[in-house]
Amino acid sequence: MRRSLLAGLRVHSNCATIYRNTSNKTVRRELSASAVMSDKFKLPARYGAGEKSVWVEYIQLAAEYKPAVNLGQGFPDYHAPDHVTKALANVATGENPLFNQYTRGFGHLRLVQNLAKLYSPLVGKELDPINEILVTNGAYEALFSAILGHVDEGDEVIIIEPFFDCYEFMIKSAGGVPKFIPLKPKPSQDGKEMTSADWVLDEKELASLFGSRTKMLILNTPHNPVGKVFTAQELQTLADLCKKHNVLCISDEVYEWMVYKPHKHIRIATLPGMWERTITIGSAGKTFSVTGWKTGWAYGPADLMRNLQVVHQNCVYTCCTPIQEAVARSLEFELARYDSPECYFFSLAEELVSKRDYLVKILKENGFKPVVPDGGYFVMADWTKLENKIDLSTEPDRNKDYRFTKKFAKEAGILTIPPTAFYSADHRHVGESYTRFCFIKKDENLQLTEKLLKEWNAKKN
Length: 461
Ligand SMILES: Cc1ncc(COP(=O)(O)O)c(C=O)c1O
Known about the structure:
By secondary structure, the chain is an alpha/beta fold. It is globular, with a radius of gyration of 25 Å. Helix 5 packs across helix 12, helix 6 runs parallel beside helix 7 and helix 13 (about 345-365) packs parallel to helix 15. It folds into three domains: about 1-40, no CATH class; about 50-80 and about 345-460, Aspartate Aminotransferase, domain 1, CATH 3.90.1150; about 80-335, Type I PLP-dependent aspartate aminotransferase-like (Major domain) (Aspartate Aminotransferase, domain 2). The chain has 15 helices and 18 strands. It binds pyridoxal-5'-phosphate. Its EC number is 2.6.1.7. Keywords: Aminotransferase, Pyridoxal phosphate, Transferase.
């Protein structure tokens, strides 16, 4: 039958007609155009196997199993500051009809002017709002434009693991070669709480990655998912290597305002000799707790920013005008009260620290070993002490943390994210015994998490 099917195949323009002999009758069959053309239209090789990202997979998981609490994706489940959401409502329905039309492609004027006002004192240099700042479709597009705007065929890019998963994809789609180095947890001392500062780079291993093909280093501080806030000394080591090997630094600082005392966020662009080789990335979504607004930015020296502009003008052209106007007004509002503790840039971390401490406490009480983050809004927690309480054999995934998070979501009703999604294939073992919890959630949802953790543990005893 199979042979006769193939033998009778004829291709007519965009469909195939099959003549098949069944009970001495000739039968016509149409094959769909896509079946015939599928080979031609398969995903280009530079995109790899086109696997689902962890976000796509876990959003589906949440839709299917409806866990009682979602501590997976990094976004608040409560309102942004009033003035921020009101700004958008006022812009969209206000008197100026042009706020609902296209605006300047490289960034709405009022927004880039306010970004320059915010960052100039922080980087110790008067920023040119026109040539040194680009507004993007979330920090995501700032990364895209920075990577696609600089990485050439065969260029090597150093990525610190765990890493925000799109870095690798973007580098490869530009023809670049990612070179990975994991942050490694120092061996834990009995009874001592582990913090994100205990996750460090091996300096010799780091230096060995830099060479003549190295084009770029991607830094993320404060770090997702570890919560590490790179120290002045750690940043100096990275800066010295970048300068020695003439390497560009992309500094992803979307969690810049979520740093817990006594730690301080240091912008690598402010280190001597680094401004000219650094592109710094920020996010209005993270800064104002409006991740759905998908508005971000990149800033750096004009000659480097030009390369981002070229990608942006041809892929995106311009970002959403009313949201840019609303972010500009929100920045103005916060800049006017910058010296007050009420300024959201500072009150946010104050608000989050008690959530962090509460989550760390309940995780410890329920068999996890959390890594206390110095920044960001995630906690990585070692779950291996719970391994004897959970049957992972029913989950088919290759990595243990995927099996744990899926089974745990189904049994305990708590959705978390498997950190091996943030590692290259060779280094997944470093993250397999952890899971990532997000704590920018309503207090009542963190309390519900405690209840669910206790109930799950009680069932297992
Ligand atoms: C480290 C890091 N970089 C970039 C982004 C993307 O930010 P945005 O939502 O502004 O595109 C995220 C979002 O979670 C992130 O965690």
